[in-house]
Each structure stands twice: as C-alpha cells, then as structure tokens.
Amino acid sequence: MSFYVVTGAARGLGFEFVSQLSSNNQNTVFALVRNKSSATALNDLSRPNVTVLEADITDSVAIQVTAAIIAAVTGGKLDYLINNAAVHNRSPETLSTFPSKEALDTDLLEKFQVNVLGTIHTTNAFIPLLRAADLDAALGSNNAGQTAYAISKAALNMAVAKYAMAHKSEGFVFLSVAPGLVDTETETGRTPEEEAQYQAFIQKLKALAPDFEGPITPEQSVKMMLEVIHRWTVDRTGAFVSQHGTKKWL
C-alpha cells in the first residue's frame, strides 16, 4: 500500500491526481483543499481510500496539524507528496505595464506566498513522514504576461533543487514536473474575448512547434505525470522536466 498527499485537490489537475491514484484500491490518498464544503467534485468522488482534509498551504500551522492527522492514520509515514496547489491568473501585464507599484507588489507577493512559501512549508511539514517511509518503494511561447506566476515558479524550481541537494543522501527524490499545456478551463469556461486570446496563443505555439497538436486534458496530463513520477530515481533528483519526462515542453 502507498500513501499519497495531494495539495490543491479540489479541481483541475489536483482532482485528477486524486481520481487516478484512488482508482487503485492499494493507494490511500489524502486530498488537501482550502475549502472542503466547496470541493463538490472531490466530495462526490466518495471513495473509501480518499480522505479530504481542509488546509490552506499558506497557513503553516494548519499544514502542521494536517501532517499530524495524516501521520496518526499512516503510522507516521508517507510515500509521495504531490505539491500541486498554486495560484495563477490570466493577468496580461508585463513587469513594466502594471497600473501601479502597489498592483505589481500585490501580484508578486501573492504568488510567492502561495507558490513558493506555501509549498516550502508544506514540504517541511511532511519531510518527517517521507523520511519514515520505505524509500526503496518511493524510489518558447513569446508570452510576456503572467509575470508573477512565472517568476514564482522559477523560484520554486530552485527550491526543489536545493531540497534535492540537501536530502539526496537520504534517498529522497525531489522533482519539478511541468504538466504541459492543459485546458483546465473547460470546467469554468472562457468569455468570447478570452477564447479568442487563447486560440491566438495556441496558434503561436503551433508555429513554434509544428508537431504540437494542441492542449491536453487534465486526465491525459496527470496520467503522463504519474508515469514520470513513479519511474524517477534518486540519481536524477532535483530535475525539472515536462510531462514527457524530458525537456520537450509541448
């Protein structure tokens, strides 16, 4: 039996991770969400090997409490931590076109608070459980917008590399996996203007990569990422790869 924690599990890729992992009754999945009552799809999944827990990753105390709850169930161990939770927006602003200094600061700080600090605090909370697990078993878009998200993710990749260096001797595997271009907005929809912008973006990508066939679904992305996660080994810890397990990003 393998124990998994998935953050940001209410919808999108996080929900898909939970859905695919829990389809194997040998897996026990702890799904972390900010608001349990609004996680409709997750609650409707209603599988005995899925436990939904409410914890905002920006609340380090709540994350520590959640880790303790999980440890009590698993005998103090965890096999996989999937840090999926992140905040993202459609902001087209570049670093020089924000309407004010305050707006730029707010955007950057919000993304760093969640995408970098939240993930680091979550990882720190679960390292003792990962340490107790059986490690042998664990073993070009031209888009200048969405700046804070991109900057925070680059910082997070460096944090993953630092974790990898610090814990390689213990047999831990740290890995940053880009999900590919995934259309997660089919759940929420796009306005006609947003759809036009999205399609223009897709055409740019196709011009850059002629073999690019278009966005993939959350189901396809998670299936590919899990294949990468499950085959990665400690000798390649700290890497940043795509859903293909390579540097092919589309």
What does this 3D model show about the protein?
By secondary structure, the protein is of the alpha/beta class. The protein has a single domain (2-241), classed as Rossmann fold (3-Layer(aba) Sandwich), CATH 3.40.50.720. 48% of the residues lie in helices and 11% in strands. It has helices at residues 12-22, 40-45, 60-74, 101-131, 135-138, 147-167, 192-208, 218-231, and strands spanning 2-7, 27-33, 50-54, 80-82, 175-177, 239-241. The strands form two sheets. The protein has a four-stranded parallel sheet with strand order 3-2-1-4, sandwiched between helices. A two-stranded parallel sheet has the order 5-6. Helix 1 links the parallel strand 1 and strand 2. The longest helix has 31 residues, at 101-131. Residues 136-141 have low confidence and may be disordered. GO terms for molecular function: oxidoreductase activity, acting on the CH-OH group of donors, NAD or NADP as acceptor. Residues 2-185 form the Ketoreductase domain. It comes from Favolaschia claudopus. InterPro entries: KR_dom (IPR057326), NAD(P)-bd_dom_sf (IPR036291), SDR_enzymes (IPR052184), SDR_fam (IPR002347).
